[in-house]
Amino acid sequence: MLERGALAAMGTRFEIIVAGESVSLARAAIESAFAEIENCHRLWNPFSADSLVSQLHEATEHEIPIDGLTHELLSLCQRLESDTKRAFSATTGAFLASRDPRRSVSQDGSEGHQGYFELLENPPRVRISDSRLRWDFGAIAKGFALDLAVEVMREDGIQNAFLHGGSSSVAAIGAAPGLSGWRVQLPQGGILELKDGESLAVSSGHGNYQGDHLVDPLSGDWIENLSFGCWVRGTSTAEADAWATALLVLKQRADFSAGLGTEGEDWGFFEIDNEMQVGNDEVDGDSVALQCLSPSASGDESAVI
Amino acid sequence: MTTDRREFMIQSAGALAGVALLPGLEGLARSIEEGYPVGIIGTGRQGRAIAAELQKIGAKIVAICDNDAPRLRSGSRRVKEAKTYADADKMLTTEKGIEAVFVATPTHLHRGVVESAIAAGKHVYCEAPLAHTVEDAKAIALAARGSSKVFQAGLLARSNPVYSLARSFYRTEAFLKLVSMRGQNSRKDSWRQAASTAERQARLDWRLNEATSTGLPGELGTHQFDVFHWFTGKYPVRVQGRGGVLVWEDGRKVADTVNLVLEMDGGECIEYQATLGNSYGGRYEVLHGVNSAFRLAWSHGWMFKEADAATQGWEVYANRQRFFNDEGITLIADATKLASQNKLKDGVGLPHDSLYYGISDFLTSCQEEKFPKTGAGEGYRATVVGIAAHRAVVEGTTVEISPDDLKEA
Question: Yes or no: is domain A48-137 CATH 1.10.3980?
Answer without folding.
Answer: yes
